[in-house]
Specification:
The protein has 13 helices and 13 strands. The chain is an alpha/beta fold and 360 residues long. The chain has two domains: 3-171 and 344-357, Rossmann fold (3-Layer(aba) Sandwich); 174-341, 3-Layer(aba) Sandwich (Rossmann fold).
Length: 360
């Protein structure tokens, strides 16, 4: 059996963490799988198959730069000695981790980097190149994107690497989502209200929930039978809580914090809403599709199967006033979500990744 190794940060709540668990739990049917983490932490740990070997590689963070560099150099040498070209395939699944990008290329000549975001939305062209050049992007054999837009915009800046670039979006555990969505929630739901739900990390630079909250403040001046549910945690939790209080919309906007099972809340909602400045290909878009919830998004991102404009939702403005007017027009509009065959999609994605892994 071929041996493969993936590098990530931890198994806490998040789209990347959920995606790598779904992926590796499928790949154990074909390969001997090792996962390298900086921390074996997070509430998703129990979702990872026991067949997957977990290795901890945590970079030293000593404040003394000399001690830190020496310690990291020694750790890297030990890792190289134990793992040099030991694997048939290696993958830096979290490209923001510098160590993951370095070590994955040590483990196998057949290596890949997963790109989960469209980094042209995060950096200008100069900083975009700095980010990927530091990771020696040209030395990766494969560059895998989870969205069409991520690949397209990357190639504009690195046209010579186009042959290495492929789109393989995340696997989705449809059965788990449908099962968990049927669980009861411990709050009273007003069946007359239209419920919008956000699910994700509370990270203002990317997610821009201040924009969403301002929109709902405007909406609630005329639309009294709407609610916004916010599922997730992160460094901006208190900022959003304070905005809700400042806007005096506590009765209609509710924060539920981190939830192991967000699907039972999503199942009660009418729409999924994201007002982000940038995304890769949000796993939550596919989860909403499985639960027949239209997606309302400020970003038009797609993969091989999912496209908001192809019967799966609505694209809205990033301007809160325009956003509010557009949502008013969406409310009550009859809309049948175009469903994806996720069994077929998962098989297709696994087979395409296996062709990469099995390259000689």
């Amino acid at each position: 059996m071929k041996k493969i190794i993936f590098f990530a940060k931890d198994l806490n709540i998040g789209g990347i963490e959920k995606a790598i668990i779904n992926l590796l739990n499928n790949l154990i049917n074909y390969y001997d799988v090792t996962l390298v983490l900086e921390e074996y932490s997070g509430i998703y740990r129990n979702n990872l198959s026991k067949k997957i070997k977990v290795v901890i590689y945590k970079p030293n963070s000593n404040k003394n730069i000399i001690i830190r560099k020496v310690a990291n150099f020694i750790n890297r040498l030990k890792f190289i000695k134990q793992n040099y070209h030991k694997y048939d395939f290696s993958c830096a699944y979290a490209p923001y981790l510098f160590s993951a990008c370095k070590l994955s290329k040590i483990c196998s000549k057949n290596n890949a980097i997963y790109v989960h975001s469209d980094y042209t939305k995060i950096y200008n062209e100069k900083n975009f190149k700095i980010f990927f050049n530091k990771r020696e992007i040209e030395s990766f054999k494969h560059i895998i994107f989870v969205s069409n837009e991520g690949k397209k915009n990357f190639i504009k800046i690195y046209p010579k690497l186009s042959d290495k670039c492929k789109v393989i979006s995340n696997l989705i555990n449809e059965e788990e989502i449908l099962t968990k969505s049927k669980e009861d929630i411990k709050i009273k739901v007003n069946s007359k209200n239209i419920i919008f739900i956000f699910v994700g990390r509370l990270d203002e630079p990317a997610k821009r929930l201040t924009r969403m909250l301002k929109c709902f403040k405007i909406l609630l001046e005329s639309e009294k039978n709407i609610e916004l549910w916010i599922i997730g945690d992160g460094p901006y939790y208190n900022l959003y809580k304070n905005h809700i209080k400042k806007y005096n919309i506590e009765e209609n906007v509710k924060m539920f914090g981190k939830q192991i099972n967000p699907y039972k809340y999503m199942n009660k909602a009418n729409y999924l809403i994201l007002t982000s400045d940038y995304e890769g290909m949000p796993v939550v878009f596919n989860e909403a599709n499985i639960l027949d919830k239209p997606v309302i998004s400020t970003l038009n991102v797609s993969d091989e199967y999912f496209s908001i404009e192809n019967g799966m939702g609505f694209i809205i403005s990033k301007n809160p006033k325009k956003m509010a007017n557009q949502i008013k027009n969406i409310i009550g509009k009859k809309f049948n979500v175009k469903r994806i065959d996720y069994k077929k999609a998962n098989i297709d994605r696994i087979n395409r990744l296996r062709r990469i892994i099995d390259e000689v």
